[in-house]
Amino acid sequence: MAKDLLSRSEQPKPIIVSLISSTYDAGAFFDEMFEPGGKTVRPHYRRLAERLTTLPEADFNHRRAAVDLAFLRRGVTFTVYNDSEGTERIFPFDLIPRIIPGKEWAKLEAGLIQRITALNLFLHDLYHEQKILKDKIIPAALILGAKHFRREFMNFNVPRDIYVHICGTDLIRDHAGNYLVLEDNLRCPSGASYMLENRVAMRRAFPNLFASYGVRPVETYGESLLKSLLHLAPDRTEKPNVVLLTPGVYNSAYFEHTFLARQMGIPIVEGRDLVVQGKKVFMRTTAGLVQVDVIYRRIDDDFLDPTVFRPDSMLGVPGLVGAYRAGHVALANSIGTGVADDKVIYAFVPKIIKYYLGEEPLLANVNTYLASEALDRKFILENIAKLVVKSANEAGGYGMLIGPASTKAECESFRTQVAANPRNFIAQDPIALSRSPTYCDGELQGRHIDLRPYILYGKKVTVTPGGLTRVALRKGSLVVNSSQGGGSKDTWVLQGDE
Amino acid sequence: MPATKLPPSRPQTNVMLSRVAHSLYWMSRYIERAENIARLLEVNLQLLLDFQGLDEAHRKEHWDSIILSTGEEKLFEEHYKIADSRTVTEFLAFDLRNPGSILACVFSARENARMIRDQISAEMWETLNELHLYLKSQNTTDVWAAGPHEFFSRIKQASHLFQGLTGATYSRSEGWEFIEFGKYLERADKTTRILDVKYHILLPNASDVGGAVDTAQWQAVLRSASALEAYRRAHVSAILPWKAAEFLIFSDSFPRSLHYCVVQIEEFLRRILGETAARPKSDAARAARRLLADLQSLTITDVIDEGLHEFLQEIQTTLDKIGDEVVQITMFYPAESSTEEQQQQQQQ
Q1: Which residues contact A64 (CB under 8 A, 6 or more apart)?
Q2: Element containing residue B196 per DSSP (H, E)
Q3: Contacts of A317 in chain B (CB under 8 A)
Q4: Rounded Cα distance, B306 and B318, in Å
Q5: Which among B133, B343, B346 is the nearest to A395, CB-wise?
Q6: Nearest residue in chain A measured CA to CA from B175
Q7: Could you tell me how many CB contacts below 8 A there are between chain A and chain B?
Q8: Hey, how many other C-beta atoms are within 10 angstroms of the C-beta on A227?
Q9: Using beta carbons and an 8 Å cutoff, which residues of B are at the interface with A?
Q10: Best of A91, A276, A286 to disrupt the B interface by mutation (most B CBs within 10 Å)?
Q11: How far is CA B281 from the centre of its chain?
């Protein structure tokens, strides 16, 4: 039977997966696994569908439980805020992978490389000649008023001219299956550890499926990351010391910090482990002070150095910025990159790509309205209930209004905020995010997903084939953030196309 | 920037953060502590079952002595009215208000391990994490209903597994020295306390010495230190009170005897502090060497003449001082970073 289904010459027969009730509803959305109508499986999902057909539900549940238990035992958790017990939870994991054919990925990869290349050129320009402002491609006021623009770093040359070394770009698919960029995360993007842990979990749950499918490995991420970091090291020594700077054990992403440090075999440090003397950074070891060359920092700019940024910060290292400026230590990502992942600047990225590279963007943006522009503002204020409104500088799904899903009072409240502080808001057409079959309530049901691939900029730009697919587990929900009921899936990029 | 107080220099191949060393040390101490308390509690719960005939006063005396030996009698009195098997178990096993309870120790061991998750092997971490998950799912009532044996053996097994895995998966580096130093320091301290229980229980009336109760109690002391079988192999005859004490203090081969532990402490302390000269530079190394000399030259008669309790107390004080000084020399820190701020960091 399996052979028949695989042969390309024959018309594919519709498959009904046993775990999917015959009433699986693909809805009016783009479904990753099913053709419209919800009966025919897309070619690159066919082998998975076959496996699921032969897999008794009890067996499936057994694997699911085993995976959850493994996550818990290994401490693959995140900390939930606003929870008095400081509970650690596992990031809910769904066993149905998201599968991307090789050809489709090649396009994504090219688009992501184009984007990060342009954004780096943009950052370099902003902190030097500001040609793009002088040419009036972007209104200067938008940059100079941006929260994350660090004027202290004007005319500063970052090591190797790279601003963003680690980038996590959020992608979504619209109702027709087109990939769109939702946002760029250019400061401290998180989640790469889950990409890697999810793969480990899937390999254990479905070892044979991997062998037959030809899934491209993600396990190279740690090594590539370390290479990108080493690329930045000042020429002090042949064996540079690279460290990961964490806010500490109570940070929600602490698991990820220790995970990545372990993958790279580098020490994880807190601010109090570091000290600056003579514009050089040292770590306090049992054998005295040891110089540090590269810092992969998972702390925001504001907290890095109390003598330059927030004076009340206890997380940072006094004098760190001075050492950075003197070229004795490299930071990844650089300071001031947040100006380019601002949600207002986002709207200009297609223009930025054209301006610096002379190319058409390979990946489109979501149609965006700027509250700072008079015409757009009028449109937003009049149509707020039909739009998604976002505050420019928030992350994690906070400070956001989904008009169609909100009450009148909530819309009103945002309308007032937008009118009062237009620079701080944008609005977008609501996108009917694509859906993937996800195991909920004992059967597979369609749930909305997004995708965060990880792009590393070292000697060259590499995109890890895969990424973190986040899924909104609540029925109908569009919010995929882990803090708000999101889970994740393993992301398979295939060598071939099926 | 004020000058940083530096530890004595030592030839260095691998770099270890002071904070990491600190966490390894405490992780190791806490798991050893949890195990010892589990054994102490289990043995004494059993012991009382063997002596159903004991009157109220004796029972109370017995449990009081256990609390006294842990040094937390004030804390206990604050929260509990009487010392009986139930309250003492609650206090020593589950009460998070008692920083020395099994639960608190396992939580601390696990929290220290979590901080340095990148530095220890996956096997070590998973063992502590699993024990932590198990404990979170337990409470006194359930443990009592099921019989506490299962509970205590889980703790002991996890500790043994952890120490075995550490030996099998952790590199013999500086971190190893801190782990071993912490383990033996804690073990030595606990052995003094286990011995001291007997002192508190009763200074035997002349007529009781060597009697059934006395022998059973010494047996319990030996069992509390997992030493009964080892003792029997060393002394084929019946359990003689001072022989038991002698064994736990002076044995040079039993890995829980004070002597054995102090040999290890002295060795790892010298390595950590880079004390290579014949005459040590630090007070800690001097104190360790003096203690070792005592344990290698005194006899049980000397100990009895001085008084067992006084002898043990003095050793506890010395061990505390040694631990504190090593921490101070190798770990110098400014203020703690604030928890709230760590949490505030927005995640992209």
Answers
A1: A95, A205, A439
A2: helix B174-201
A3: none
A4: 17
A5: B346
A6: A286
A7: 142
A8: 16
A9: 1, 4, 6-7, 9-10, 12, 15-21, 111, 114-118, 122, 125-126, 129-130, 133, 174, 272, 330-339, 341-343, 345-348
A10: A286
A11: 27
- Partner residue facing A253 (CB), from B118, B129, B347: B347
Look at residues B131, B135, B204, B152 and name the one whose alpha carbon lies nearest to residue B43: B152
Orientation angle between helical segments B148-169 and B122-136, nearest 10 degrees: 170
The end-to-end CA distance of chain A, in Å, is 17
Nearest to B348 among A190, A249, A277 (CB): A190
Cross-chain Cβ contact B342/A286 below 8 Å: no
How many Å apart are CA B145 and CA B266, to the nearest integer?
A: 44
For residue A134, the distance in angstroms to the closest alpha carbon of chain B comes to 31
Q: Which residues of B touch A289 (CB under 8 A)?
A: 4, 6
Nearest to A284 among B10, B130, B332 (CB): B332
Where are the strands (E) in B184-326, listed by range? none
Cis omega before residue A333 (within 30°)?
Answer: yes
Residues A446 and A457 sit within 8 Å (Cβ to Cβ): no
Instruction: Find the CB nearest A287 among B12, B19, B332.
Output: B12
| ipTM field | 0.76
Q: What whole-number distance in Å separates Cα of residue A345 and Cα of residue A215?
A: 35
Tell which A residues from 148 to 167 touch B, by Cβ distance under 8 Å.
none
Q: Considering only CA atoms, which of A101, A13, A95 is closest in space to residue A52?
A: A95
User: DSSP letter at B91?
Assistant: I
Are A189 and B348 inside 8 Å of each other by CB?
Answer: yes
CB A43 within 8 A of CB A190: no
Closest approach of chain A CAs to the CA of B184, in angstroms? 20
Per-residue pLDDT of chain A (498 residues; tens, 9 = 90+): 344 444 444 444 444 446 666 678 888 899 999 998 888 899 999 999 988 888 888 899 999 999 999 988 888 877 666 544 556 778 899 999 999 999 999 999 999 999 999 999 999 999 999 999 999 999 998 898 888 899 999 999 999 999 999 999 999 999 999 999 999 999 999 999 999 999 999 999 998 888 889 999 999 999 999 999 999 999 988 899 999 999 998 888 899 999 999 999 999 999 999 999 999 999 998 878 899 999 999 999 999 999 998 888 888 999 999 999 999 999 999 999 999 988 889 999 999 999 999 999 999 999 999 998 899 999 999 999 999 999 876 665 677 888 888 899 999 999 999 999 888 899 999 888 999 999 988 889 999 999 999 999 999 999 999 999 999 999 888 888 776 778 999 999 999 998
Report whether A252 contacts B341 (CB < 8 A).
Answer: no
| Token code pair at residue B148 | 């506490």
The residue among A462, A456, A460 whose CA lies nearest residue A165 is: A456
- Which residue in A217, A231, A274, A178 sits closest to A495, CA to CA? A217
Euclidean distance between CA atoms A498 and A212, whole angstroms: 11
Candidates B70, B77, B73, B141; CA nearest to B102 is B70
Tokens 């400070």 sit on residue = A399
Phi and psi, residue A440, nearest 5° = -135, 140
Of the candidates A12, A104, A285, A82, the residue with the CA atom closest to the CA atom of residue B7: A285
**How far away is chain A from the Cα of B155, in angstroms, using its nearest Cα?**
16
CA-wise closest residue to A251 among A370, A415, A125, A88: A88
Contact B144, B16 (CB under 8 A): no
Beta-carbon contacts of residue B44 (< 8 Å; ≥ 6 apart): B62, B63, B66, B197, B220, B224
Give the pTM.
0.85
H or E stretch covering A331? strand A330-332
Q: How many CB atoms lie within 10 A of CB A355?
A: 18
B337/A258 CB distance under 8 A: no
